[in-house]
């Protein structure tokens, strides 16, 4: 059942319709055999049994001089021959359903069981022993006498109609579901990516869905822009009261306890850091898309990381053209490297990989990692994981901002613990 649920909508629909058509055709074939072919075969066996009995009796009543003419006439008119003995030189083959029907018809006419032998030679023949006036004669005929185009024609029609229905089903399902694939790609894409075009000649309902999605995306983008503007404005406006608080702190009397002064200074510095992060998030959500070289940007953030005391190792291509917001991506990478500098041992290995349909950028540090249950929690704002990697990991907005910036770039950011130890941040995006 799980395997069936994981199939695509096209596979599920095509398999359902295909199996339904095959089952329907099989049932049709069974009904035709049961109601048409089998009764026809029984009627044919009854008629042939009557011909065999009359021919055997007539043969037994004729004189030896009259028999050759009778046999020739019987062979030419009915395709039936009579012999005095069974031809033992021809080997027996497996039975035949018509032989079974003929045996039943003969038994009803003669009042005793009659065994029909099927012999195989160049042509398969049916041999029937008939006892008349104490004399047994063998009436035989070849399989060609049973040839009928009706069963073959019915089987051909059913096979052709099944194949035609399956092909038409595949075409119909593909035509109906192709617009859904386009809409699915549009839903997975970035809010700033251009909307794809639906196949021509499709149903208007799919175009309506795409238009509704376009309107929702426009409204959502407007909401994001308003949120970004509001966040930036509030963060900027809070800088002035914070500056006045710092000025007031500097004017505190000398008799103010040093512990109180240090605590106030730490709170103001923390507020200043949070406001800076909020401003970065607000500016990053209003992306300015442009073309640039991603490898050059990585080299720049790596150099900044080393100047702050970190160790940078990179396995990267020489160039990679990228389209996006350069400053937002720079802030994203800087947040990840700052996290690695604080809690990951100050050593980062960068790796760039190409996979079918996706690109991956991994930044792995040399820390002790994070418990698996907490890998998603660190992306929540103001989450503090005590004793994680020996520090209070994930406090503040650093990783939360990093994920928001990644999503604004059409990327996916995830964390995982590497097999060799340490924490890896992986950025992936479709190409």
Descriptors:
Beta-Lactamase; 431 residues; rod-shaped; Heat Shock Protein 90; alpha+beta; five-stranded mixed sheet; Helix Hairpins; four-stranded antiparallel sheet
Summarize the helices and strands and which ones pair or pack:
Blueprint: H1 2-5, H2 9-61, H3 67-78, E1 81-83, H4 97-110, E2 117-119, E3 125-132, E4 135-142, H5 149-188, H6 204-237, H7 239-250, H8 258-285, E5 290-293, H9 294-307, E6 311-315, E7 321-324, H10 326-343, E8 347-355, E9 358-365, E10 385-388, E11 391-393, H11 398-408, E12 412-417, E13 423-430
Parallel strand pairs: 6-8
Antiparallel strand pairs: 1-4, 2-3, 3-4, 5-7, 8-9, 9-13, 10-11, 12-13
Structural notes for this entry:
This protein has eleven helices and 13 strands. The chain folds into three domains: 2-150, Beta-Lactamase, CATH 3.30.450.300; 189-286, Orthogonal Bundle (Helix Hairpins); 287-430, Histidine kinase-like ATPase, C-terminal domain (Heat Shock Protein 90, 2-Layer Sandwich), CATH 3.30.565. It is rod-shaped. 56% of the residues lie in helices and 17% in strands. Strand 10 (385-388) and strand 11 (391-393) form a beta hairpin. The two termini are 32 Å apart. Helix 10 (326-343) packs antiparallel against helix 11. The model is unreliable at 387-396 (pLDDT under 50). By secondary structure, the protein is of the alpha+beta class. The relative contact order is 0.06. The protein has a five-stranded mixed sheet with strand order 6-8-9-13-12.
